Amino acid sequence: MGMRVEGERTAPSAAHGTRRAADRRPKRDREATERRILDAARDLFGEHGYDGVTVRMIAAQAEANVALVNRYFGSKAALFEEVLTGESVIRGVIAGDPAGLPRRLAEHFVRQIDQRPTTAMSRILDRSAGQPEVKEILLHYLEDRIVQPIIAQLDGPDARARALLASTIIMGGGPVRRLFGLTDLRAADPAEVTDRLTAMFTAALAPPVRREM
């Protein structure tokens, strides 16, 4: 048997470690690129709305190749949906004690009013709602993130109708922001606004009262 030269076993191990590091780099590079693309898309959709943004604009702001945007996300519409999902916090607001749901929704609404600057999610929804290409995406977002979670919190009949009524209050803030701005609402007493909204959500979510004939 020949003598084993010291260091002979370390070379393959070092090479293996180098390969593993090289294998990790592409994954980290992809994750970083995806993050830059999502950040760029969020900012641009919030500023210009869905129709005012192109994949080329997103790629340029993200300092990425246009082909990578399509490879990672498939299409502008799919990227828009990914941005909506990532920015949404409403499902977390809805989750919790069903008895406290009206108050939580009211407090969330008031936080959105007081955000300075307006949140990216609010800007995206304001500037993109009503655009035909994203109608299905917005419907899916509303159903998955707001309507169904609210329905899961409700007992009694007509749960979907009650959830949709509450959703109307939540989503109706967009047109008010676009047409009137938020100056007057921000000037109002937040506690009073929260109390009024709590009453509105309570009425919207309450089971229907069956009137006797």
Task: Describe the protein's architecture and organization.
It contains twelve helices and no strands. With 213 residues, the protein is mainly α. α8 crosses α9 (159-171). The model is unreliable at 3-10 (pLDDT under 50). Residues 20-33 have a biased composition (Basic and acidic residues). Residues 54-73 bind DNA.
Major sheet: size, sense and barrel closure?
none
- State the helix count: 12
Give me the Rg, rounded: 25 Å
Q: Name the beta content range.
A: under 5%
User: How many structural domains?
Assistant: 2
Percentage of residues assigned to helices: over 70%
Low-confidence stretches: 3-10
3D shape: elongated
Structural class: mainly alpha
Q: Got a strand count? A: 0
Please provide the ordered H/E string of secondary-structure elements: HHHHHHHHHHHH
The average pLDDT value, as a whole number, equals 83
Distance between the termini: 104 Å
Provide a concise account of the structure shown.
The protein is an all-alpha fold and about 210 residues long. The chain contains twelve helices and no strands. Keywords: DNA-binding.
Can you give keywords for this protein?
mainly alpha; Arc Repressor Mutant, subunit A; 2 domains; 213 residues; disordered N terminus; TetR family transcriptional regulator; Homeodomain-like_sf
